[in-house]
Amino acid sequence: MSVAARKKVLLMGKSGSGKTSMRSVIFSNYSAKDTKRLGATIDVEQSAVRFLGSLVLNLWDCGGQNAFVDNYLAAQKDTIFSNVAVLIYVFDITSTEWETDMRYFEGIISALREYSPDAGVWVLINKMDLADKEDPKRKKYDERRGDVVSVDERVKGKARGMLRCFPTSIWDESLYKAWSSVIHTLIPNIGLITSHLTFMRDLCLAAEAVMFEAETFLVIAKSGSPLDSDPSQMDDNEVKSGAKALDPQRFEKISEIIKGFRKTCQRIGETFSSFESKFDDCTVVLEPLTRNTFILIVSVDPRIESAMLTYNIYHAQVHFADFSNRDGVKRKCSLCRANTEAPYEVEGDEDPNVRAWDDVGM
To answer: Comparing 101-110, 316-325, 343-352, which segment has the lowest mean pLDDT?
Structure first.
């Protein structure tokens, strides 16, 4: 049995910025409307969230009242900012105290770069639904983002952790895009997972294969090009299947739709298990892949039936599960053998005379 990797994630930002609301939407299946009854976070609330069986997020939701923040930066600096994998810092785009907000952010970033220089920073400029009404071109967001980047560059020094910035709202799929980006970078052996998804896509003559975490339905990985890649980085199969013309927010929209549909199923006493449909121009199958994940396969080949896609998913389930639970594995597949990221060893597997289990003729 593999040992779960624990990653410390700080969730910080001034009181009222929306930290606890977004945490509740992502991890507790709240609707945006439900968050109105949430109260302010008092000091630090810790929770553990398991992903893929091999990753546990140790989430620290830190209260944003001035007294708490002052205490974090004075008496608790070592406790709060040591061993951090990711800081998620939330700003309220409608704040009327931006200069004060930036001073607190600079203090927090300075402490993070001192105690956890390799930590990544995700800045979520939240409540964009309110700002977009008066600023549809998002000039205010661009200004705020520029201020954030300037602060990080000023205090970064020799620290190696990167900073990324996202506009978000709990009322649309932008929240899922930002959090998926965070989780994607923390998944162990993400390259190995991506290579297997690409193999699955090509085996099924499909356009895309996408992995979602089962509870949050955040996107973990996809076939072909990297999750946040530019269209110019798409591989040949993605280009041929017309992926460049697809909505770049499609995965996050699927996350939001499926979570809403599952909530409806729960209300009427039904259980959501899977989904499949054949449209005029594509076939879509969404099935459980492992205990912690679902896989979405989209085929644009009119010859492909959903039963074939489901059949291949069924036969891939055991091997995908091996990434987090390796009891009983006797041989690696050819992808695992060729990939230096493969984290596990199998006795006798290095013998070139012993074929990988998926070699032709086995």
So the answer is: 343-352
